[in-house]
Amino acid sequence: MKTFPHKLGVQQRVLPSYRVPFFDLLAQSCESMSLFAGQARPVEMVKDGSQLPLANYRPARNLHIFSGAFYFCYQRGFIDWLEETNPGALIVEANPRYLSTPAAVRWMHKRGRKVIGWGLGSPSPLRRGAGVRSRFIRQFDAMISYSQRGADEYAALGFPREKIFVARNSVSAKPEQKPDDRPLTTDRETLLFVGRLQARKRVDSLLKACAEMESKPRLLVVGDGPERAALESLAREIYPSAEFIGAKHGAELKLYFEQADLFVLPGTGGLAVQEAMSYGLPVIVAKGDGTQDDLVREGNGWQIQPEDYGALVSAMKNALFDRARLREMGKESFRIVSEEINIEKMVETFVDALNSVF
């Protein structure tokens, strides 16, 4: 395992529970690690992950300013935390809306220490605000991007490409064992959705698309949320065989992943995509921030635009046309998360970036 033989500080606006395994693995790779993060706004419904088994967690006092396109966050106590922990290197979220970051960067640089920005990327340099974004990222000594698309966007803003590292976004460890091969049957195919039932997940489109399939596949909807009642009402009208399982977590999900032939996520978000792939499932996902570009490819699934219903129907028809092909695509899904995109590979890239600035 690669290591970083110095004290590390990591700043996050919030610490969601799904990031805990990654940060604890990163902490194992450093001399020591302290993480500074605050609480999300209630409307965000972020499951808190502040109970870190290995990394030292220090709560920030987040001041949320305005909302939507005008949202900013100021984290009280940032400099106090730096003075207390005295890290040899600092990793921060590369978001210019976080107003306390520049002062922290100056504090580190004044002491001859390095700061790495970590982010999704940045929109086209031709769009409004490109100058602000470019000046913001130039303060960092290296950049870590969630995806290759994000890395290209940072390079387009003028950041040196040789100082940009791609740590492909992951929330799951490398699968411990290969899923068992399931025999092909004459039964109808099983489609699976796992996620919070919100409008942006487009489960309504999934129900409508299933109704258009000639084979009338079995549909399992695993999750809960504010749209559940409306979706169940819609299902009774257009696809009454849809099964609403409710919220399941951890080991409870295994049963449903093992029954499925295809995982479908027609809307934005989707932490369950990688877990589905670890069970050897091909996937249909909506395009988002660029992380899907690396995870979902022609060999293991389909990417569609989140608002393109026609593309969803077309992808589902294409997928369900040949179940034997689906099995082969599922094997490629497993290979990707086993060999290329998992939290172990993500930590390796973080350590490479840290060692590069020393």
Give me some keywords for this one.
358 residues; alpha/beta; Rossmann fold; 2 domains; 7-stranded parallel beta sheet; 6-stranded parallel beta sheet; 13 helices; 15 strands; 22% strand
Helix content: 25-40%
**Structural class of the secondary structure composition?**
alpha/beta
Large-scale geometry: elongated
Kindly report the average pLDDT value. 93
Alpha carbon gyration radius: 22 Å
The DSSP helix count reads 13
User: How is the largest sheet built, in terms of strand order?
Assistant: 3-2-1-6-7-8-9
The largest β sheet comes out as:
7 strands, parallel
Going by CATH, the architecture of the largest domain would be: 3-Layer(aba) Sandwich
Structure description:
The structure is a single chain. With about 350 residues, this protein is of the alpha/beta class. It folds into two domains: about 5-170 and about 340-355, Glycogen Phosphorylase B (Rossmann fold), CATH 3.40.50.2000; about 190-340, Rossmann fold, CATH 3.40.50.2000. The protein has 13 helices and 15 strands. The strands form three sheets. Strands 3-2-1-6-7-8-9 form a seven-stranded parallel sheet, sandwiched between helices. Helix 9 links the parallel strand 13 and strand 14 (about 285). The protein starts with a strand and ends with a helix. The mean pLDDT is about 95.
